[in-house]
Design a protein that fits this description.
Blueprint lengths: L3 H4 L1 E2 L4 E2 L4 H11 L3 E5 L5 E6 H7 L3 H4 L14 H12 L20 H9 L4 E5 L6 E6 H11 L1
Parallel strand pairs: 2-3
Antiparallel strand pairs: 1-6, 3-4, 5-6
Length: 152
């Protein structure tokens, strides 16, 4: 049986939950990454920070309270408005926008568990040590396809 540890990509760089979002935004922009893991100072997995969460955080405040609203083209955004909200966001801790509801797998979990999560629109599946809560690695579409094609 193929387990998650056999194909996971080890994680060597994570963002810390108590760092300012400015460091996360710069990190993501420099590396063109739209999704990064976030840990506490003891490397305990906290969650994932995704670009869509950052985009939601810089929406005008009135829109973040309304669910299901899709037609908002009547609003006129200026670059200055967006820059101001982004500037305010940069000073908050990463923890403020991290998705903590991410499902994880154990290193010894069957790979099929990670495949199911990936098929349900979770773009990355963190592999977390069940005893310490430490982030060990991650599995993504690229990880799976790379492992399969490597063997053929």
């Amino acid at each position: 049986m193929l387990d998650c540890q056999a194909i996971m990509t080890p994680i060597s760089v994570s963002l810390y939950a108590d760092d300012p979002l400015s460091s996360a935004i710069d990190f993501m922009m420099d590396r063109h990454m739209g999704l990064v893991p976030v840990v506490d100072r003891d490397d305990t997995f906290v969650g994932l920070l995704a670009g869509d969460r950052l985009m939601h955080a810089i929406l005008p405040p009135t829109l973040t309270y309304v669910r299901g609203m899709t037609r908002v083209s009547y609003l006129r955004e200026r670059r200055e408005d967006l820059a101001e909200r982004l500037g305010d966001l940069r000073t908050k801790p990463i923890r403020a926008v991290v998705d903590t509801r991410v499902k994880t797998v154990r290193p010894d979990s069957p790979l099929i568990d990670a495949l199911m999560l990936l098929s349900q629109k979770q773009h990355v599946v963190p592999v977390v040590d069940p005893d310490s809560g430490r982030l060990l690695g991650a599995i993504s579409f690229f990880t799976v396809i790379g492992a399969v094609e490597e063997d053929t």
